[in-house]
Amino acid sequence: MKAHQQLPPPLMTSEPGSFARATIVERKPQIIARVLADGAYPPTITARLGAFRDEIAFGSVQSLNEEDVGGARFWNEQWACYEGCTWLELPWYFAETFFYRRLLEAVAYFRPGPWEGRDPFGPQKQAQEAEDLRQVAEVWVQLRARAPEDLFTALIHAALWGNRADLSNFTVRERAVGDSTADQVNIIIDHTRQVHALLAHVAPGQVAFINDNVGADSLFDLILADHLLTEGYAAQITFHLKNQPFFVSDAMVPDIERVIARLADDAPDEFSGLGTRLRQALNAGKLELATHPFWTHPLSFNELPADLRARLAENDLTILKGDVNYRRLLADRHWPPETPLEEIVRDFPRPFLILRTLKGEIIAGLAPGQAEARQAEDPSWLINGKRGLIHLVE
Length: 394
Prior knowledge:
Elements: H1 19-39, H2 43-58, H3 72-79, H4 92-106, H5 122-144, H6 148-161, H7 181-185, E1 187-190, H8 192-200, E2 205-210, H9 216-230, E3 234-241, H10 253-265, H11 274-284, E4 287-291, H12 306-312, E5 317-321, H13 322-329, H14 341-344, E6 352-357, H15 370-377, E7 388-393
Parallel strand pairs: 1-7, 2-3, 2-5, 3-4, 5-6
Antiparallel strand pairs: 6-7
């Protein structure tokens, strides 16, 4: 973060009419309702989920009741800063992350017994995987037909627009990859050529993805990773995945293992060879599925733990997918849109690439007047998922 000036305020759930407020008032109760509908939970868990829903609507934010499992002690230290606050008096990012940790406590995710380790979002995630597998198979046929010089660009753009699929965001309905003229115009910052030049002019090295969602999002990450490996842009690729359920559709290691198995064993014929190559890369260590507790913490990227920072610093390129990773780069603060990203993010290991569809009221690195022009043409441009960023910081 910039040390020479006062930091702008964080996005707060208390902001009237904001998307942050709507996520608490509308989205979080909907998420709890879907977990109740899908889970077939016993009365004890059902009661805890109902009480949690009522707390969000009417009560103050409660601490975790668990002993030190799932980082409960750490989370309660973070909660202590907001003891006595309601859910509409919190920094937005803390409110969202603490919601998911509290939900895991309610469904006994860390408690020994029949519900231990059971993903409360599993049914939704697997349904989305099945649906998106069919859709992406059709798109993959079109992508493979591209001329070699065009395929890199097409796959970067597909990895961007695949990020539209987000089960925690009921505002964003579009699932298409995005290959129309309108979609190209809606890439607000497009550094595709610079990314290609970066990877094409160095010896194959290490590339990392800080992944986001299951479904089309991670499928296109896997397709892009396969392309980087087979075409010699990278020698080794790491997927950094969530260590526990988070933001409904965020991908964990078992989710990606399941997708690779499906691609290798029973995917549509259009994916012939892809799953086999990915499985071979996984077995050979050319593709690694990694995790770390930090990925589900309420901390920003300026608070990266030393071990994770050192690991990311080894990469020739780190690709950050999605809105949440972007919010963590900017500490979820109200930066003026024309603030150069390089000035805000001074200590995240470089080079890094942002692939983000806009689903949150935060952005930086725009030209003067660009945000105002977008706002005039579409008041919901920051949250409706129609626009994207391919933003490289070297």
